Amino acid sequence: MGIIPIISLIIFTTALSSYFLLTSRGRFLLKSLVTKIKRQEWKFRYSKPNYLKSRFSRTITIAAIILVAVIAGNTVSAVTGPSPVSLKSVSVPEPDNLGDFVADKTAAIKLGKTLFWDMQVGSDGKTSCASCHFHAGADNRSKNQIAPGLLRVNANGTENPDSVFNVGGLPNYQLKPEDFPFHKLSNPNDPKTIVSDHNDVSSSQGIFNSKFVDVTPGNAEDKVTTDPDPVFNVKGINVRRVEPRNTPTVINSAFNFRNFWDGRAQNIFNGVNPFGLRDPNATVVKAINPIRAEFVKVSLKNSSLASQAVGPPLSSFESSADGRSFQEIGDKFGSDKLGLVDRISFTSGKGKKLPRKLAKKLLPLRPLAKQIVHPQDSVLGKDSKSPKPGLKDRTYEQMIQDAFKPEWWNSTRLIQVDSDGKRTIVKRPDRSLQTNEYTLLEYNFSLFFGLAVQLYESTLIANDTPYDRYLEGNTSALTAQQQRGKGLFEGKGLCIGCHTGVELTAASASSVAKEGRIKRAPFGAKSPEDNGFFNIGVRPPTDDPGLGGHDGFPGSNPLSEARLAQLGKFKDLLGENPPTLSPPLNSSETVFANGAFKAPGLRNVELTAPYFHNGGQGTLEQVVDFYNRGGDFGVLPPLNLSPEEKQELVAFLKGLTDDRVRYDKAPFDHPQLFIPDGHVGNSNSVVDDGTGKATDDTVEIPAVGRNGNSGTPNFLS
């Protein structure tokens, strides 16, 4: 950069400094501009060196944007906008056609909470949704919680899984504070001082490697065969498999437009699986009357939580033996093919199965039969059998009938599914060996499961934090240190580039409604990107492509919506026209997707360690160090925070904690839960349970009622 441009820039910025610092309009404008600059500054730093041809042009571009904004700011109305509002002012998104399916919302929430916490849902009769989401909506376990880099790909996108355990060396390892961060530096402020680098992931243990055989109605445990696990074993004895991405909290996830780290849980719920309109074969059955039924496609917008909910019960890592379907799960509570994308757990097209048998096992079982429900549970207390386990006088069949309209469960017809996946509605059963037969309630169990769990999770809203009370006008709700941290969060720390809006995430439904599903970066080549998904340099994109992956259906459609628009598939697979970009989208231009992940909301972040999609940072202090040095893989701008400023920022993040979450108070109270916490022994020796599987080391999470308790300890505390 030459001397004349430097002098010009100094004069220009000096002239603006008093405006920015001495006027309220200037300070507000500066905060907004910092957000814009931050969100695009990192775009200069990864994959696209041609964004601006020189450091000079980039600097002048930023200055020009500031100047234009100042001019614009002085020409608009001088009326001050409304004061910031808390999260209490934001409605949870719901599908506008929910009433076509749900007869009683309160009953559906009760069903959803029961299904979410019921250990009988899992293929092993022990693993529920809550097994990975029991602590502030996330997972605080630290033994047998490491997965190697199973999602690694080559530069051309072909699979290249890494099965080597670097952290701890072997499965069933007990994590320690000194294991973090996974990318170690001798100077945490200098990304060049690398001491060690591991591509392992700290996540959640699920089930053992096994193949589904059948359900036994009335038996919580499926019939399975145990297969030797080439990765998750200790001296040939299988241990529980660990998910290849860190477990995010479900609390406040109802505000997300899409869910899962890579966004594959679609905003539209198809009643069957996470993939919305991407799955052309997803159908449920509707009874026109009790003696006439037909296959129909359903589409519920604002239902990414329902899309997310039906994935884990059939994941061969999380809850299910490989090959199980929703109808079979429902029959044990009372096979055919498709599409749960399942590379190792869920990402690229192996281990495909149709979610059709989950119903058969649950219908005859007492809900929560293995778990005590607190008599003061805010949702289930009236139905508690305490001190005995389970719900009294309730069956899953009754709960479904109470919650959903009869056209989705009341029919004298059966649905046959033959060995080739052909489905036929018949008048009477044909118990041949070539077919599976389901009642209407069993066949539609994925529809009930997804919507009920979504409605329950939509009650898990943490909106009574010190930060929210501060936004409502209580200026003493945040300490002076936290208020300074808030200023850093919105300014020098550049946090609001991704964690924007009152939901503190650009991936929220309100953000997408305001700014569109895809947008252009305002700098340089103005490349398109999915709103709310960012590559911040946690790991190289080849370690885990994230949003850069594909859905596994014929055509291998990209998860990135911007890339779908490039291919002309946006409307067909997402149900609406793509937003109009300026300039128009070019089919050959580069899209920011590889290595990008959904920006999470930040409430209760104090309670949800470890952090990032790989779980590679163990504390908030380590997270702030990561951002301060500009990330680990050359993406973000360095922040140059002082030690005092770092602590102020951490203090503010702790001001985002809702004490109802900390102490399990309603609506965050819950039934008793027993969770596997690694296995008896260590990473060198485990105890065979007689079937080739390691004996679980089990921990009890006691039942808690609406008034809460002392909470569960934080990760590694």
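(ticket continues) Second input and output from the same batch:
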Amino acid sequence: MKYRSRLVAGAVACLLGTASLLAGAQTIRIANQGDSLSMDPHSLNESLQLSVTGNVYEPLVGRGKDLALAPALATSWKQTSPTVWRFELRKGVQFHDGTPFTADDVVFTLARVAGEGSDLRSNVNDIKEVRKVNDFVVEIETKTPFPILPDALSTTYIMSKKWCETNQATRPVDRRKGIENAASFRANGTGPYRLRERQPNVRSTFVRNGNYWGKIDGNVQEVIFTPIANDATRVAALLSGEVDVMEPVPLQDVDRINASAGARVIAGPELRTIFLGMDQKRDELLYSSVKGKNPFKDKRVRQAFYQAIDIEGIKKTVMRDAANPTALMVGPGINGFMAEQNKRLPYDPEASKKLLAEAGYPSGFEVTMNCPNDRYVNDARICQAVAANLARVGVKINLAAETKGTYFPKILRRDTSFYLLGWTPTTYDAHNALNALMACPDDKGTGQFNLGSYCNAKLDDLTRKIQAETDKTKRAAMIKEAFDAHSADIGHLPLHQQTLAWGVSKKASLVQLADNFMPFKYMSISK
């Protein structure tokens, strides 16, 4: 194993060294534990992919350094009636191939996002119609009042209608089916950086867009993005100067990096919540020793799993205190989070055993747990710890940990019985988590990431009302009521909010955002 690790490290060093020969004084080299799985901005609603493609593509309404809404391809927006929004589009913008940006691209994009294969349908599932008023004005009509529509569109990136039609990419890449098209490997956005080279799982190179309409704060001309899955190799690349930025930093290496001569760790809270989901729809689980019924349909079983998890132990030993245990599906920083609700059920293995016995499983049962090993901080180790906890109450977990490239397509087609997932509400509002993770799934995009199909009619009704409510006090009360209903049901098993940790060369400067997006336009590098 050590010999193999040296071979891997040598190969990565060779690759990075080759890239550095091509790099100029204003090239920044970024390493991540995983890759952006596609250049198609609508194919996967995952923070890393949205972060990477968000440097090439842009939304109508973006975010500033403080994560507040900011004009992007729309210069202004307003409600002209409770269900109609009017967006004034930016003039003089070109896609990277020189095609002018117009309202036609907005109408096309929102239809593409709402269509088959899109992983962002929950962003637009409440849009009734998109109308072109003229080349630089569009109206978006929603099915009901939707006061946070601009927030919901902040990660819906606009594509060129002409380019997609020319390149047979009018539909998104469907990660569930393994379908690829030209948008998987090429890109044509309006953003501050252009895609120059794409080698999936090897290297992607981006260059500054000389015709960009906006301001680029940093001095970086070229970005070389390299996935390095091995933690030790990624740290070594930073410390040796082969990369300038890397994330995530293995928690055990934070002090070592901070003590080094050439690098430091930038840490901060993250908005992402890590949680476990359970198949609550099928009458028989796909991957379990229990036949003829589904144990997760019984709240007692769900609660037994919850109370078997030693969350403080995971925080201390797995996360090295770089996590905040949670009882909710959203954390601090998300509108609608209430600290007084954030109280977990106690860790109590004996209570878990009793609940399992009451539910008819005195000796426990066996179930497969799906988990990524290269997406979240210590994701596979979290799953290993949960498996060990559950073993103590008689539940045998068959852990299936795999790279996110195969993990996400599997769970997104709901080919799972028990899974780990992380979620950052892109609107920074609780409605996003309610609508995408907790609402009963339908064929319009509601509950698109409620992969275990948990359903509660009261929560669904509240979610619809929350979307339309403009009175902040009433809206907050409804969010609280919806979270109370979900918690009472043990609809999911919330674990924690992880902490961001980026390793950064002392020659580099950047802006760390709580949503873990990494805008290249804020980066600078010195010799």
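Agent notes: The chain is about 30% helix and 20% strand. The longest strand covers residues 263-278. Closing as not reproducible unless the customer responds.
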